[in-house]
Amino acid sequence: MTVRVGVIGAGMIGQDHIRRLTEVVTGAAVTAVTDIDAARAAEVAARVGAAALPTGADLIASPDVDAVLVTSWGPTHAEHVLNAIAAGKPVFCEKPLATTAEDCLRVVDAERAHGRRLVQVGFMRGFDPGYRQMKEVIAAGAIGTPLIVHCAHRNPTVPESYTSVMAAQDTAVHEIDVLRWLLDDEIVTAQVITPRATGKRFAHLKDPQLMYFETASGVRIGLEVFVNCQYGYDIQCETVGEEGLVRLPDPAAVGVRSAGRHGTAVLQDWKGRFADAFDTEFREWINAVAAGAEPTGPSAWDGYAATVITDAAVRSLETDGQVVTVDMKPRPAFYGGTA
Ligand code: NAD
Ligand code: ISE
């Protein structure tokens, strides 16, 4: 069976996922595209022989759409996801699930009322081969009980539109999601400290930022977010346990010896760094939809959790580094919890 996907939002990542669904993943076709920029929707739709539809609501209602991909701007996500749930269609929503905790909970409540999982949130790190190997090592007990995680999330530069709160909401949110999954633990406090700012940033931006998180079991996570590091896109993660440590590998790259130096290139963006993860994420999502099964990737609850944890980090940033307790509801049994 070919899964017919409708795409809401034909911007940068929407176009990359359309390419992925049409050229990389088998068993999927993109049959409809919409964007508030109608000319862009028409152009992108024409490239893959899809229909360009006027609105997200039209696309979700279309009989030619089996499953929905939401890649529009974050503040519009909740509306489209809620419409897809109301139509009973599987929906993959790029991060964030919604920009407020209240909207995330509306999605959670709607999905629970529907009675089975329809929503997958586009946190892709858990599909990366390196993170998957780290999880296997930790779960097998090979490093003993995890105690500390050291992380860095560096981007070469960001545009002027990137603001200080986005360090948590847009950037650190990936570590927040993947570390909850990696440690199988919940984050309960957040603290954000701002060291000396780099001169190579737009003046309004606090960059770099040091973020500290504590989990329910007492693991301490330290994360450097540095989005104007200049040299490349660099993701580091090391988990220290009672009996050893496990470190995320750098992506494989050829070593070059020339002019008296030996080195490897550093990737420059998330698209290259996580290309394999995105491909696997969509292969597994399409396989689940084709089988009529529930999605296995990050859930609406994970989307809610990521939002309330980033809210705590933002409150810490705005209160000069106070330790902020995460205000999370108890996890419902529907999402593997006890409430
Ligand atoms: P973008 O601005 O390039 O594209 C967004 C598109 O959505 C634009 O074409 C815009 O016109 C359209 N749009 C906005 N509101 C709409 C609506 N209501 N209906 C239809 N179309 C609408 O942005 P982007 O970089 O592609 O990011 C899109 C989403 O993907 C964001 O939520 C972002 O956080 C997420 N993202 C995730 C990752 C990741 O690593 N997983 C990376 C980049 C972006
Ligand atoms: C961007 O939105 C992403 O999702 C990238 O993975 C991240 O590295 C970047 O900082 C964000 O702005």
Automatic annotation (TrEMBL):
Q: Where is the signal peptide?
A: none
SUPFAM superfamilies found in the cross-reference section: Glyceraldehyde-3-phosphate dehydrogenase-like, C-terminal domain (SSF55347), NAD(P)-binding Rossmann-fold domains (SSF51735)
Matching entries from Pfam families are given as: GFO_IDH_MocA, GFO_IDH_MocA_C
The record lists the membrane-crossing segments as: none
What EC number(s) has UniProt assigned to this enzyme? Answer: 1.1.1.18
Report the sequence similarity comment from the record: Belongs to the Gfo/Idh/MocA family.
Q: How does it assemble?
A: Homotetramer.
This protein is called Inositol 2-dehydrogenase
The record lists the lineage as: Bacteria, Bacillati, Actinomycetota, Actinomycetes, Kitasatosporales
